[in-house]
Model the fold of this input.
Amino acid sequence: GHSLLWCGLIPVFVDINPKTFNIDPNSIEKKITNKTSAIIAIHVFGNPCPIDEIQKIADKYNLKIIYDAAHALGSKYKNKSIANFGDAVIFSLTPTKVLTTGEGGLIVVRNKKLERILKLGRDNGDSFNRDEEFLGITARMNEFSAILGIEGLKILPKALKTRLERVSLYKKELADIPGISFQQILPSCFSVYKDLTILIDEKKFGKSRDDLSQELLNNKIETKVYFYPSLHKKKVYKKYRKIHLPNTDLVSKHIMSLPLYSHMPKKEIIKVCSVIKKFYKKYESARYRSSS
Done:
């Protein structure tokens, strides 16, 4: 969203699928007008969005597709890297990502003209003759960051393997707690789980997302609440606040990301889950006494 505002473009927000947390193709088509130029879709938390459906819409209306894959380096759609789809795929390499260079990112494109523009654009628009072709920026990656990324690539397969083992442990430990559900990953998708995010149903769990977050913090366990408030409700997008996106608002108010990193000790995961279980049982007992 911010990148569109920087470029003087008008963002048009659409709703999500409340199970996958990804963009809803049906919502996309409803918002297309003769002023629409492109679709930006996010692979949320590393979960590939419905690429085939988005491509059909783009082909139908002659639109470009930009995939925000900030969370998703290593993710796959139908056994292919998500870098194979769309007109541009953008990855983030900041410290919270599965692969990091400290700061910076990567962009994958298939158009040679666009590739050249991007390479010049990150170096002030200069083709190394001191005669800038257009107004670019200074966005060169430093050598240390590049080395960090190259070394990180060497251990990425192992890191992804252990990360998914940690995710499986979380799911096993929390599977039977009423009111806790996980992001849906479809059979055609492979997610790198940039975050292990749960959805809290307050009526079934007995306490709110914020209550649980505070309880974990009381036990020195930090959690993150991503996408809250929803993007279209942030101050910078105040002119879009009247947009009705019920699924986005629902998920935004109830999701929480639990601690997760590729080398996270299993005992730490057991501790997190133990606190959650005790918190649920504490209020489950209270509910039982009040109802009886």
